[in-house]
Amino acid sequence: RSALLEQKQAGLGRKLVEFEMVDKGIPRSHYEVEKDGVNIGHVTSGLHAPTFKKPIGLAL
Asked: CA-CA distance, 43 to 27, in Å (whole number)?
């Protein structure tokens, strides 16, 4: 329990986030994710979402 409290107080080092592609193409697992030219993580899963009519994915 104390380890969980320490993690809660320190905050998470990383988290799973959703994203949408700005270019055509399906995001594939382990592709790098960049923001302002800086690598900030990698794709964990991706697909074309017919509802949104664009590629989306999850990244760590």
From this structure: 7
45, 58 contact by CB (below 8 A): yes
Would residue 40 count as lying in a domain?
yes
Is position 7 within any domain?
no
pTM: 0.73
Per residue of the chain (60 residues), what is the pLDDT tens digit?
888 888 888 887 788 999 999 888 999 999 999 989 999 999 999 999 999 999 999 999
For 18, residues 6+ apart whose C-beta sits below 8 A from its C-beta are 56, 57, 58, 59
Task: For residue 44, give its domain range.
Answer: 14-59
Between CA 24 and CA 10 the distance in angstroms is 38
